Amino acid sequence: MNLILEPLSFEFMRNAIIVGILMGILCAVVGSYMIVQQMGMMAHAISHSVVAGLPIAYVLGISLSVGAAIAGVVSAIMLAAIEAYSRVKLDSAMALILSEFLAVGVTLISILPGANRIDLVNILFGNILGVNRDDLILTLILTGFILVLTTLFYKELLFYTFDPLGAQAQGMPTKIYYIGLVTAITLTVVASLQTVGSLLVIAMLVGPAVTAYLLVKELHAMMIWGSVFGAVSSVVGMYMSYYLDIPSGAAIVLIVFGFFFLAFLFSFSYRRLK
After folding, report:
1. CA proximity to 204, closest of 241, 160, 151, 248
2. How far apart are CA 128 and CA 123, in angstroms?
3. How many angstroms separate the CA atoms of 174 and 131, rounded?
4. Could you give the 3-state DSSP secondary structure of residue 61?
5. Cα distances (Å, whole numbers) of residue 153 to 200, 204, 209
6. Phi-psi region of 41 (alpha: psi -120 to 50; beta: other; left: phi over 0)
7. What's the predicted TM-score (pTM) here?
């Protein structure tokens, strides 16, 4: 029992664990739609593109999160435009936009006055132990907001996710749903910068959701079980980080992959037995 209670005696550990649980839930819900829509690489591109908005936000004196969110949405819109109005395939467009926005961010950090104070290491790899009460409240609000919208528009999102052409034929505003999903991915990426960083956030978005995908068939069950895997991974990863003195974000991602590997073995064995 002392092994469990000892880390909780520190406020930074309590904040980190709570934020980790919230991020596990948020990433699983958004990631479930992302997996079904086959938008995994979209999140990868956005997670790198947000770097371009950081130095601009810093120089303008606004929140880095706002700059990151704007850069992420702009990159996603550019991806959609390239795919829609040219012969370039989405995977090629993603590779181009990812590298271009990352290059723009690194360049602006080096030339804009004062922007070199931005800690790129924390942006890339996260620092969940540095979260404060304001970060916790912001993550809680964002998670609640996404969960409420998902509940209110679940049927419409389900229809659009599995049959976008049918949804468009029925007169649904599919472009709005697409932009909304991209915005949700971007906000999740921005919120994850503090916890696991832009390089590891893709694992949090994909890992718990795809683990649940191996075990269940319904979308709502996928989101529920994905949230469980994401939250538990965050808690176990934080304890592993505390006792083994390893980076917290990396520890969380290792646990995420551990759950996926176990689910893969279970689903593979189940199919063989059938």
Report:
1. 248
2. 11
3. 36
4. coil
5. 29, 23, 19
6. alpha
7. 0.85
Q: Which residues contact 268 (CB under 8 A, 6 or more apart)?
A: none
pLDDT tens string 56-83 = 888 888 877 788 888 888 888 888 788 7
CA distance 212 to 28: 9
Look at residues 166, 174, 154 and name the one whose alpha carbon lies nearest to residue 32: 154
Length of the chain: 274
CB 97 within 8 A of CB 51: no
Percent of residues in the chain assigned helix, strand, coil, to nearest 5: 85, 0, 15
Q: Which pair of structure tokens corresponds to residue 49?
A: 């593109």
Tokens for 264, please give them.
Answer: 């893969």
- Model pLDDT for residues 150-207, shown as the tens digit of each residue: 999 888 888 888 888 888 888 888 888 888 888 888 888 888 776 777 777 888 889 9
Say what angle helices 90-111 and 53-60 make with each other, to 10 degrees. 40
CB atoms within 10 A of CB 82: 18
DSSP state of 218: S
